[in-house]
Amino acid sequence: MTASTRDQFIAAAKVLFAQRGFYGASIAAIATELGLTKQALLHHFGSKEKLYGEVLKALSGDLLAATAAITDAHPDPATRLEELVVLQLRSQMADPCAARLIMRELLDNERRAENAGNWYLQPYLDTLIDAALAIEPLRADSRGRALAIIYQLLGAAHYFTVSTPTLTSIFGAGQFGQARDSYEEELRLLVRARIAA
């Protein structure tokens, strides 16, 4: 299997896992979506768990690459953190499937959490924690407190993104469009306020 074919398989699986969750996306349904037999898919990935891990690994890799670019471009720690949080909003607005997948991973993972061998999103979160702790007012904080800060900020970005279809239905495309157009600036103000506090 070529790298591009593998990437296509992972991208298609990501959509199904995002739509149905880990438990709702059967290996047979994923294989059918990819135009494969169940046995062929298992031959390539070994198990549904391994395929799911590859999906999360690819998502984490994309986030880490974008994070590295921001880290290199912004030497000021406060600006860096702000841009990293805004990156989360922009990347999830551009790829709602990724946003939904992350939400499902957080909600559906209870049964697998105790036996998880690899937490693919941890390096990304660790990078954000390090970015927060590089800011002068936050340097004395513990990593746990920095995680709480990061989670609050990412949660604000993430919740808005996954709520897009519902908010559009409730408020209409016009009002939601106004909220979407304002959201990045509101998120920036939230980051700045937290840093200042």
CATH topology of one domain: Tetracycline Repressor, domain 2
Q: Can you tell me the residue ranges where pLDDT is under 50 for at least 5 consecutive residues?
A: none
Structural class, by secondary structure, is mainly alpha
Sheet with most strands: none
Overall geometry comes to globular
**What is the gyration radius calculated from CA atoms?**
18 Å
How many beta-strand elements? Answer: 0
β-sheet strand percentage: under 5%
Per CATH, which architecture of one domain? Orthogonal Bundle
Describe the structure.
- The protein has 197 residues and is mainly alpha-helical.
- The chain has a domain at 60-196: Tetracycline Repressor, domain 2.
- The protein contains ten helices and no strands.
- The protein is globular, with a radius of gyration of 18 Å.
- The mean pLDDT is 88.
Task: Tag the structure with descriptive keywords.
197 residues; mainly alpha; Tetracycline Repressor, domain 2; 0% strand
Please provide a brief summary of the model.
It contains ten helices and no strands. The protein has a domain at about 60-195: Tetracycline Repressor, domain 2. It has helices spanning about 5-25, 25-35, 40-45, 50-75, 75-95, 95-110, 110-115, 120-135, 145-160, 165-195.
